[in-house]
Amino acid sequence: MKSSYRVVKLGDFLEETNERNSYLENIPLLGISNEKKFIPSIANIVGTDLSSYKIVNKNQFAYITVTSRNGNKISVALLSDYNKCIVSSSYITFKVKDNTNLDSQYLLLWFKRNEFDRYSRFKSHGSTRETFDWDDMCNIDFPLPPLEEQVKIVEQYNVISKSIEIKQAINDNLLEQIRNIYNQIKSIPLIHLSDIPTLKEIKSGINKYEGQKQYFATGDIDFLLFSDTYQKVKYDERPSRANMQPIENSVWFAKMQNTKKLLWFDSKSANINKLILSTGFFGIKIDPKFLYYLISFMLVGEFETQKDKYATGTTQLSVNSSILNKVKIPFEEAIATKYNKIYEKIINNIASNNKQIEKLNKLKYILIERTGMLQ
Hints:
This protein is α+β, with helices and mostly antiparallel strands. The protein has helices at 104-111, 114-123, 134-138, 147-185, 288-299, 301-309, 333-370; strands spanning 6-9, 14-16, 19-20, 30-32, 38-40, 54-57, 61-63, 76-78, 84-87, 92-96, 141-144, 190-192, 200-202, 212-216, 221-222, 225-226, 231-234, 242-244, 250-254, 262-265, 275-278, 281-285, 328-330. A four-stranded antiparallel beta sheet has the order 2-10-7-8, with helices on one face. Strands 13-22-19-20 form a four-stranded antiparallel beta sheet, with helices on one face. It has a four-stranded mixed beta sheet with strand order 17-14-21-18, with no helix packed on it.
C-alpha cells in the first residue's frame, strides 16, 4: 500500500545528546528493559568512575545498540518518570529536535512495534556482537503523520494505559484481601499438597487434534495474564514443549525458580480445548470444592518461597513431581471448603478484571501497530 504520509529519514528529526556526568551528579543509574522502559540498574558501581556515564534528561531517549544477546528485541526507552538519570557510556542517548513536528511519545510507540524489533535485528551487524548503531537509527525511513494525528494516537494510548492501571490497582487490592484472609487461617495444621483429597498432578501429553491450537509458553504469560505472543500450532508441527493440555478445575504454575506465573481453569473457562501449555508449567487437578482455596494459597508469597526452595537442576533450577510431597499448605477439609466459597468470589473478580486488561492490551497493540501502517 502506498503511504499518504510524508516518508522522511528519522535522523533528520533526531539529535544525539551525549551529555556526560562530568560533575558527578547524584542522580539514579538506570538500565533499559526489553519492554522498552527505564529500570533501576543492577550493575555493581562500587569504585566505578561515573564521570563518563551519560546523562538522560526527561523526554530524552536512550538505547542499547547490541541486539544479538537481547531476545531479538532492541532496548530503547523514553525517560518520563525521572527528571534525569545516568546510563552506561555504551548507550546511545538522543532527543527529538522539534516536538512540533515529531512527538516524542509517538516515536516511543513506533519503537514498540514488533516490526521495529525485527527491522533493527535484521539491520544489525558485527562479527562478535551484532549492533544497531546510530547511523542505522538515523537511516530509518519513517512515515511521518501530521502532528495532530500523532497526538491523538498518544492520547488514546494513554487513556487505555490508565484504564489498565485502574484495573490492576483493583486486582492488587483483591490480592491483598486474599493475603489478609490467609493470615487469619494459616494457624490450622499444615499438610503436604499431595495429601489434599482429590489433588493429582496432570501429566504431559495431549490427544491428536485437527486444525490449530493456541500454544502458550511460560514467556507468553505475565504473572496472571495471557499475552498475544502465543503461537498457533498444528498437532504434527508443534514444538516439543507444547505438550500440556489444560482441563477444568486445574491450576498451573511455572516450574522454574524465581518465575511467578499462575493460571487456572474452572467450569466457566471457555475454549480450554483450543489451548496448549508448555511443559514449563506444572499442572494440578483438584476437586472444585478446593479449587479456589488452592489458587489463593498459590497467590500468597509463601507458596513461591517454598517452590523456589525445592527447585533443583544443573543449568536451570526448577521443580518436579516431588514438589507435591514437599510444599506444605494450611488445610482442614471443613475450613478449606468454607473459605473456598469466600475465595471464589474474589478470584472471579480478579479473572474478570484480567480479561478486561487482556482486551485493553490488545487495543494498545493495535494503536502501536497503527504508527507503522502505510495508509
